[in-house]
């Protein structure tokens, strides 16, 4: 069967043969020879719940297949803690094909298929056979039947239908209209009192809910590039904060997974020495083979002199230490090796299921402990977090600037009893990067991670869009107010260096921090270029980690100080507003970045096809998508946001936003 025929087939009526758990990768996919599999999930279901999980899985198949599949699915559940339906994994290569290669009746639906496959590309996904894109548990689907059925629905979809996605499950195609979103995605939207980590483990094992992370479950992940720009801005402004040039400076952190893998590349772009620790050998060598890190060192005895030499020569180099980051912090303290910037970007939103590993155990020993003795594993993780925090405290006493990278490091460290609280025993002693950098410098002014994907798959289209975007920004900067000149300059520098920094992994995609004005003008310039036949269709999106999309009290909205940090009105308003203003698809998730139950976040995708209708949609939706967040930040009395929303009202007479009155502190 051809690729198109397999897509249209959906779940096959004749079952394919079982597939082996481990399979050699093809040479053209990556230099690695083995799949990076998800760790076994802990045993959490009762016997009755296991039966329910099996019934839930078998409902995708005709009764004639149940007797054959039942023992197989039972074995998967017992062996891996989940039913992934490995047998149904397609034989064709999964990657972002050019849009014309997808079958279908609707170009918008084809674009969504392209983005789904990009999320599951072996070069992009963290655990591709388990349909997990990044973050250890950020899933596109829970099983392969969901993938096959979703792709079939998209191939059948017309512009008068909308596909409803319930936590990876395609509920079905429903009648709608041409201006409606083609797909509406929800992930993990459980009743609040049932949003603890074990609730997720149970519901995920039952196959009824999933953790979509941010851009995994909304089909908008573009590989590590997706966070490189924001990480570069963070590192640059971190050095500005301590009034030191990155040249000859040292940045120490950890994590080389999906999102955290961006850190060494960002360090190189910023121009410092970066040491990033990672315990997983496979992902470390994948990042090295992809060019995201320069060197891999496996021995702490070799690491210390190498870093000293790099600092002495003011090299711009990124070094992966294959081992636990606590060893790095403790050894650098003993050697009195000064760290300028420090952070952590392990997946601590998922601390008990592979997001963070304890010191004193090999990677394999940790995985075994995690699955077979979860309580001991938890104790060892918390013990490691206490040591980790103690080592950081020693460095900060010597002048290191440490910031929480929004990965729940301080939150989980505090729950472990680590010394991370400020003197008032309420706040943390270290701010998050959003509080110190991204919030006041970017989000309050409307700058966030706008992104686009060239649906043609043609690198020449990406180069043309880079040039278009740069030209728009340079023209805008001529009349930009002083308050945003630095942001504009950083963004122009970024886009000019995008090609040489080789940021593409998977689809021909680009990320660029821009405000509402910039996003609208860049998108309109793309749409005009499509109309002229200069480039193919463009798929717009953004990271959920943005001005308006995410309510996250310890990250995106950590610089909201009016007491509303724990409310989620902004994210819900965002996705509803995007839906009727022209988005091609929308998504809303529980969890993402900092963990299940800790955040609500929403995103969108929009297809530009060169039409007047696309111009109308992009102007309406992108304006709302940013200014919804600015207005909330303004109401919280954030100075930059008050400036930004007043400026927005001057340009759009239909915008009328309530401006806060500030109370005199002396009067209080």
From TrEMBL:
Query: Mind telling me which Pfam families this protein's record contains?
Result: Urocanase (PF01175), Urocanase_C (PF17392), Urocanase_N (PF17391)
Q: Where found, per UniProt?
A: Cytoplasm
Stored Gene3D superfamilies: Urocanase like domains, Urocanase superfamily
The pathway entry for this protein reads as: Amino-acid degradation; L-histidine degradation into L-glutamate; N-formimidoyl-L-glutamate from L-histidine: step 2/3
The UniProt record lists the Urocanase Rossmann-like domain at: 223-437
* Entry binding sites for NAD(+): 135-136, 213, 278, 405, 593
Question: Which stretches make up the Urocanase N-terminal domain?
Answer: 94-220
EC number(s): the record gives 4.2.1.49
For activity, the cofactor(s) needed are:
NAD(+)
Q: Which residues form the signal peptide?
A: none
Its catalytic activity?
Answer: 4-imidazolone-5-propanoate = trans-urocanate + H2O
Question: What SUPFAM superfamilies does the entry give?
Answer: Urocanase (SSF111326)
Key word Transcription regulation present: no
Database matches in InterPro entries? Urocanase (IPR055351), Urocanase-like (IPR023637), Urocanase_C (IPR035401), Urocanase_central_sf (IPR038364), Urocanase_CS (IPR023636), Urocanase_N (IPR035400), Urocanase_Rossmann-like (IPR035085), Urocanase_sf (IPR036190)
The kind of enzyme this is, by top-level EC class, is lyase
Which keywords, in A-to-Z order, does the entry hold? Cytoplasm, Histidine metabolism, Lyase, NAD
How is the co-factor bound, per the entry? Binds 1 NAD(+) per subunit.
Q: Which residues form the Urocanase C-terminal domain?
A: 443-646
Classification via NCBIfam families: PRK05414.1
Q: What does this protein do?
A: Catalyzes the conversion of urocanate to 4-imidazolone-5-propionate.
Q: Which family does it belong to?
A: Belongs to the urocanase family.
Q: Which PANTHER family match?
A: UROCANATE HYDRATASE
The identity of this protein, by name, is Urocanate hydratase
Q: Which organism is it from?
A: Flavobacterium tiangeerense
């Amino acid at each position: 069967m051809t690729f198109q025929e397999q897509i249209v087939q959906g779940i096959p009526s004749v079952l394919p043969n079982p597939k082996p758990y481990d399979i050699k990768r093809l040479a053209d996919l990556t230099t690695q020879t083995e799949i990076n599999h998800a760790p076994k999930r802990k045993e959490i279901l009762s016997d009755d719940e296991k039966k329910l999980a099996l019934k839930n899985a078998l409902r995708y198949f005709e009764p004639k297949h149940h007797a054959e599949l039942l023992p197989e699915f039972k074995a998967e559940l017992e062996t891996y803690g989940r039913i992934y339906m490995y047998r149904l994994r397609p034989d064709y290569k999964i990657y972002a094909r050019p849009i014309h290669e997808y079958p279908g009746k609707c170009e918008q639906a084809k674009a969504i298929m392209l983005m789904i496959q990009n999320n599951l590309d072996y070069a992009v996904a963290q655990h591709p056979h388990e349909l997990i894109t990044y973050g250890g548990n950020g899933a596109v689907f829970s099983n392969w039947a969901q993938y096959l059925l979703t792709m079939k629905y998209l191939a059948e979809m017309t512009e008068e239908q909308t596909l409803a996605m319930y936590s990876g499950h395609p509920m079905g195609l429903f009648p709608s209209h041409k201006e409606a979103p083609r797909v509406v995605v929800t992930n993990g939207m459980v009743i609040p009192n049932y949003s603890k980590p074990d609730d997720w483990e149970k519901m995920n094992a039952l196959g009824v809910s999933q953790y979509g992370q941010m851009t995994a479950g909304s089909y908008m992940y573009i590989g590590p590039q997706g966070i490189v720009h924001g990480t570069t801005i963070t590192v640059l402004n971190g050095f500005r904060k301590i009034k030191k040039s990155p040249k000859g400076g040292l940045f120490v952190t950890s994590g080389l997974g999906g999102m955290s893998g961006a850190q060494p590349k960002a360090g190189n772009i910023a121009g410092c020495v970066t040491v990033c620790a990672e315990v997983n050998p496979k992902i470390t060598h994948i990042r090295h083979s992809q060019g995201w890190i320069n060197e891999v060192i496996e021995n702490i005895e070799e690491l210390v002199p190498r870093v000293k030499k790099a600092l002495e020569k003011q090299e711009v180099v990124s070094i992966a230490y294959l081992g636990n980051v606590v060893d790095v912090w403790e050894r650098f303290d003993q050697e009195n090796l000064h760290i300028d910037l420090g952070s952590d970007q392990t997946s601590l939103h998922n601390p008990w299921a592979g997001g963070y590993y304890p010191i004193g155990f090999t990677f394999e020993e940790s995985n075994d402990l995690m699955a077979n003795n979860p309580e001991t594993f938890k104790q060892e993780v918390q013990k490691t977090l206490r040591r980790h925090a103690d080592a950081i405290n020693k460095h900060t006493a010597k002048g290191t600037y440490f910031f929480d990278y929004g990965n729940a490091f301080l939150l989980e460290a505090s729950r472990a009893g680590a010394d991370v609280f400020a003197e008032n025993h309420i706040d943390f002693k270290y701010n998050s990067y959003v509080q110190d950098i991204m919030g006041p410098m970017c989000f309050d002014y409307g700058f966030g991670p706008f992104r686009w994907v060239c649906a043609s798959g043609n690198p020449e289209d990406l180069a043309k869009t880079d040039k278009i975007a740069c030209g728009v920004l340079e023209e805008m900067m001529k009349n930009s107010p002083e308050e945003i000149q630095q942001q504009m300059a950083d963004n122009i520098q970024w886009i000019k260096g995008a090609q040489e920094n080789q940021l593409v992994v998977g689809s021909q995609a680009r990320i660029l921090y821009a405000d509402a004005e910039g996003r609208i003008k860049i998108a309109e310039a793309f749409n005009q270029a499509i109309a002229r036949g200069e480039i193919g269709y463009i798929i717009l999106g953004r990271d959920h980690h943005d001005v308006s999309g995410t309510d996250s009290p310890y990250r995106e909205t950590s610089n909201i100080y009016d007491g509303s940090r724990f409310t989620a009105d902004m994210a819900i308003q965002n996705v509803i507003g995007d839906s009727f203003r022209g988005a091609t698809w929308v998504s809303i998730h529980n969890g993402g970045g900092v963990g299940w139950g800790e955040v609500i976040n929403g995103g969108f995708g929009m297809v530009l096809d060169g039409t007047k209708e696309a111009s109308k949609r992009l102007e309406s939706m992108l304006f709302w998508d940013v200014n919804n967040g600015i207005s909330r930040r303004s109401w919280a009395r954030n100075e930059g946001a008050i400036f930004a929303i007043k400026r927005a009202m001057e340009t759009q007479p239909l915008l009328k936003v309530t401006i806060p009155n500030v109370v005199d502190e002396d009067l209080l």
